[in-house]
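ugh ok fine here u go
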Amino acid sequence: MNFFSQNKNTIISTLLGVLILLVLSSIQKLSMGVNPLLLKNLFMPIFIGASIGCLVGILLNKNNVLLSQLKSTNTVLEQQVKDRTIELIEKNNELKKLSNTDALTNISNRRHLDLFLYRECKRLSRTHATLSVILCDIDHFKQYNDNYGHQAGDDCLKQVAQLIHSHLCRATDFVARYGGEEFMIVLPDTNLEAATCIAEKIRLSIEKMNIKNPDDTTSSVTMSFGIAIASSQSAEIKESALIGKADKALYAAKNNGRNRIHSEET
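structure:
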C-alpha cells in the first residue's frame, strides 16, 4: 500500500482546509467594493460544503484507523482461539491416555482392555476371522514379593510388561495389565498356532531376562500362559466367555508345572 492510499483522508482534509483559507481570503479582498450580502450568498455554500468535506475526511480517517485496529485485534483473537483449541485437544488426549494407562507398568489398564476386547468381539461377529486371547501370570509372584519386597516386585512387573509389549509387532496387537501379576494379550486375526508362537517367544524371553534378587542365584522369574481362541463361526462370542476360557487354560498350565503354555478353543 503506497503513501497516498495510507493517508488519503488526511490529504483530502488538508486540501479542503487550504480551500477554505483561500475562500476566506477572497472574501476579505472582495468585501471592500462588493455588497456584503451578495458575498455572503455567494461564498456561504462553498464555505459550508468545504467544512462538511473537511469533517467527513477527518471522520473517515478515524474510521479507517479503527477498522485497522479492529482487524489487528481480530487476528490476535483468532490466533489465541486457535492456540487454545490445540491446547485443549492435547490436554484431552493426554487425559484419555492417562485414563487408559496402568500407572505402574505404563501399558493399558483393565478399563482399556475391557473396551478393546468388547469391540474386537463385536467386530469378529461381522467378519470371517479368528481372535486370540492370551492370559499370562508370573509364577510364584507372591513369594517373590515376600522374599524381595514390594519395590522389587514393582520393578519386576515393569520389566515383564515392557518385554511383553516389545514382542507385539502389529498395530492391532494389544496388551494390558489384567490385575496384580496377570497380563492379557489380545491378538486380532490370529489363529492358535500364531498365538502359541508369540506366547512361547515371550516365555523364553522372560527366562533369559533372569529377573531375580542379586543375592539369589538359584532361580529366576517364569510365566505361565493360557490361550483362548474364538472365531466368527463360534456359537456365541462374548468377552466374558473368552476370558473364562483363557483363565481355564492358564489354570491348567499352572496345574501342570508352570512355566508352560496351555490353550482352549471356543
